[in-house]
TrEMBL record:
This is MFS transporter. One of its GO terms (cellular component) is plasma membrane. Keywords: Cell membrane, Membrane, Transmembrane, Transmembrane helix. Gene3D superfamilies: MFS general substrate transporter like domains. The lineage of its organism: Archaea, Thermoproteota, Thermoprotei, Thermoproteales, Thermoproteaceae. InterPro entries: MFS, MFS_trans_sf, Uncharacterized_MFS-type. It comes from the Archaea. It comes from Pyrobaculum arsenaticum.
Length: 364
């Protein structure tokens, strides 16, 4: 395991997450202030996350075909900085939405390539731990970003002030990425195909579609608290803090047993139930959301990396993102209507489908 490269890429993600998670911590409230409804917020974050994942079907194989992986990583991080900077000047809902979409596309461009670098650093037997360590460092940045956003809103700064302040850690992330490129000596070459076969990758990707569909997005939790903006950001902060231990634990469990694949659907059901309950249960939901998304960032990525290179990672991530899009729109509409029991029912059905398919993968 190349621990130096894992740590360096983790530090890049720490500062990059400081940039864009501080933005995401205030974006739902920002859209609310611009006149958005819950279904619009669900649509923007559902489509944004779907774009950030679905585009990986293209960006993953392209990264494999070109080889090297560093160029796509640099371009992705650079575009994310530009998107957050653009939000300072957004004048209406659709301009803000377009920049949120651009930020997600930038993540789609760099993530499959960067994940190949992490997978290479992990070697044959420590992929779960490599992704777990990286995700934990990544989440420390998310915690700092969310804490900064919460504090600034509490002190009556505007979302645009948060966007402007976040540009500094973004610049630090690019500088650290250049240092990682120069010092690591790791230059993996593209393989151009999915090593474990498209059938295996497609079967696993289908489980992730239903898992994404079962996820109640954190933006809807925030929307329900949007009348007190700093409180909504605090909820987001709780989710970011909880992802640190969740990532480390899930990485360890993945390397120990394939049954770790069954964890995700259990937590998405509990997440939907906490959203149904509302009130103080929304804060419990933030911690449950952290486990569910850590699963996607650690367990699902480590399993997909075993099946192939960036193409496999891109396919699996894309199906997860399409599930998030469908769930974001439907659950946003049901939130506007106040039909919370239907969210619990639909999320539970999708989660059960994912659990069954994952159980078959780990049994046969």
């Amino acid at each position: 395991m190349n621990i130096r490269l894992i740590i360096m890429l983790g530090l890049v993600s720490l500062f990059a997450d400081w940039l864009y998670e501080s933005m995401r911590a205030v974006a739902p409230q920002y859209l609310y202030m611009l006149g958005a409804t819950a279904v619009f917020v669900g649509f923007v974050f559902g489509l944004g996350d779907a774009l950030g994942y679905a585009a990986r079907v293209v960006t993953g194989p392209l990264a494999d075909r070109r080889g090297g992986y560093w160029l796509e990583t640099f371009l992705g991080y650079g575009l994310q900085i530009a998107a957050v900077g653009g939000l300072i000047f957004a004048k209406d809902l659709w301009q803000a939405a377009g920049l949120i979409f651009l930020e997600r596309f930038a993540k789609a461009l760099r993530t499959p390539a960067r994940d190949v670098l992490i997978s290479a650093a992990g070697g044959g037997k420590a992929k779960g731990r490599a992704f777990g360590i990286h995700a934990a460092l990544d989440q420390i940045g998310a915690i700092i970003g969310a804490a900064m956003a919460t504090a600034m809103l509490y002190m009556y700064y505007t979302p645009r002030d948060v966007f402007a302040t976040a540009l500094l850690p973004g610049a630090v992330a690019l500088a650290l990425l250049y240092a990682a490129y120069r010092l690591s000596g790791v230059r993996p070459s593209g393989r151009g195909r999915v090593g474990g076969g498209w059938r295996a990758a497609t079967a696993f990707a289908a489980t992730q579609f239903f898992l994404g569909l079962s996820l109640t997005h954190i933006s809807l939790f925030q929307y329900r608290l949007a009348e007190v903006p700093w409180l909504a950001s605090l909820l987001f902060l709780i989710a970011m803090i909880a992802e640190v231990p969740a990532s480390l634990l899930l990485g360890f469990l993945h390397d120990k047993s394939s049954k770790a694949l069954l964890i995700g659907p259990v937590f998405t059901v509990l997440l939907a139930l906490s959203f149904m309950a509302g009130g103080h249960y929304l804060f419990l939901g933030a911690a449950l959301y952290a486990v569910a998304t850590s699963y996607a960032d650690v367990v699902a990525k480590a399993y997909a990396a075993k099946l192939g290179a960036a193409a496999s990672l891109g396919l699996v991530n894309a199906m997860w993102g399409l599930g998030l899009l469908a769930g974001g729109v439907v659950y946003g509409f049901l939130t506007d209507m106040g039909i919370y029991w239907a969210i619990g029912a639909l999320a539970s059905a999708a989660s059960l489908a994912s659990f069954y398919m994952l159980w078959r993968l780990t049994t046969y």
